[in-house]
Design brief:
CATH topology: Neuraminidase
Helix content: under 10%
Oligomer: single chain
Number of domains: 1
Shape: globular
Radius of gyration: 19 Å
Largest sheet: 6 strands, antiparallel
Distance between the termini: 40 Å
Structural class: mainly beta
CATH architecture: 6 Propeller
Number of helices: 0
Length: 394
């Protein structure tokens, strides 16, 4: 089978629980969704500060159809889980409260945008058995349980919107449950895979599942309607391979890569030529060593090569595909939170230093706005606390 990767038209949803960046591409269904970002005349490659009155880390950021950004879940300044949702208005550059998640899981949930612009939050903890999956209305921001619920309650899964509008739920750790309610994170990776149908609100358990159950992986949609599952950690700390999902057969195949060890918490994106790029992450150990290698998966041949390395190894960082085709990588960790950024030119496979962050941070989000600017929000600082600030890259 030949795979063809489609370019992300901006990131529709990203999350940073545990450092994993789960991406949901927002094109491909033909239905309304977040509008594609406009390309600025020229990026100045500068950063400026925005006050964040509600500190957040390990949260998710969702692009809404009207251009606003919805901040979902995570930890607050007291390192407590928060159910308070926040909205960022790019016109005023102000943040405001936007309702509560109710009994849905605010930490470790997987988020994806749906064809009509709504968002679905699946898994996470603590949450009730009846709200292992909820739908967030893009207009009213009301939260309601989906008619169907996932077959397993998982933490740190990936939710990837496919070209047909369905959402592929893969991997993660099985939740610790009590009376059906998720109260903590287990140690067993989940190898099952489910498809969420936004039209019916139902979940379908796929036969077979992943070849290797995993957590701390990344995922991205492909142009042929499938998805690429990248890395992660398997049972007993073993590395998990890259796997390609074939939507016609509903099966996964392992894709060989130059990696010789584990790659957890990597960041992925799709370039203008539809090639998939995989950057950084860590070895998944108890004291994780950041990785500096960058891989590229060719759209036509599926061959994975290593075209370059990062200037600085990093994990738990955020990536944003700029409208000019470059890839902005911000912050992350290498022992402690980083304030450096790098910009990768995916056409020439060259890297350049970007502007320094005003605040060193990891476990943050980076969201491309309609203007083409990038909102870098929250995260954890060098003191281990949630950061009460955001930055705008322009």
């Amino acid at each position: 089978m030949q795979a063809h990767f489609r370019r992300e038209r901006g990131v529709a949803a990203s999350s940073c629980w545990g450092g994993t960046i789960a991406l949901a591409a927002c094109g491909g269904s033909g239905a309304p969704g977040p509008a594609a970002p406009q390309q600025p005349d020229v990026y100045r490659n500068t950063l400026r500060h925005i006050e964040l009155p509600f500190p957040r880390t390990q949260h998710a950021a969702v692009s809404l159809p009207d251009g606003r950004v919805l901040i979902v879940g995570g930890l607050d300044e007291s390192r407590l889980v928060t159910r308070q949702m926040i909205v960022f208005d790019p016109q005023t550059e102000q943040f405001s409260k936007a309702g509560l998640l109710g009994t849905a899981g605010p930490l470790g949930g997987a988020v994806a945008t749906l064809p009509d612009g709504d968002a679905v939050l699946i898994g996470g903890f603590p949450s009730s058995a009846a709200t292992a999956a909820v739908r967030i209305d893009a207009r009213t921001l009301a939260v309601a349980a989906t008619p169907g619920q996932p077959h397993s309650h998982r933490i740190g899964a990936t939710a990837t919107r496919l070209a047909d509008g369905t959402v592929l739920l893969a991997g993660g750790l099985l939740a610790v449950t009590e009376d059906g309610n998720a109260i903590g994170v287990g140690t067993s990776p989940d190898g099952t895979v489910e498809l969420f149908d936004a039209g019916t609100g139902s979940f379908t358990l796929l036969p077979g599942g992943l070849n290797v159950p995993r957590s701390r992986h990344a995922a991205i949609a492909t142009a042929d309607g499938g998805a690429l599952i990248v890395g992660g950690i398997a049972e007993n700390g073993q590395p998990a391979p890259v796997e390609l999902y074939d939507p016609a057969r509903r099966r996964f195949t392992v894709v060989p890569t130059p990696d010789v060890g584990a790659r957890a918490n990597a960041t992925v994106t799709a370039a203008m030529d539809n090639g998939i790029w995989i950057a950084g992450g860590d070895d998944g150990s108890n004291v994780p060593a950041a990785l500096g290698s960058v891989l590229r998966c060719d759209a036509a041949t599926k061959a994975v090569t290593r075209p370059l390395d990062l200037a600085q190894p990093r994990t738990r960082f955020a990536g944003a595909l700029l409208t000019d085709g470059r890839w902005l990588l911000s912050g992350g960790m290498q022992g402690q939170a980083l304030d450096t950024t790098e910009i990768l030119d995916l056409r020439s496979a060259m890297r350049a230093a970007g502007p320094r962050l005003l605040v060193a941070r990891h476990s943050h989000t980076a969201t491309v706005l309609r203007s083409g600017k990038v909102l870098i929000l929250g995260g954890t600082g060098t003191d281990g606390q949630a950061i009460p600030s955001a930055e705008i890259f322009e």
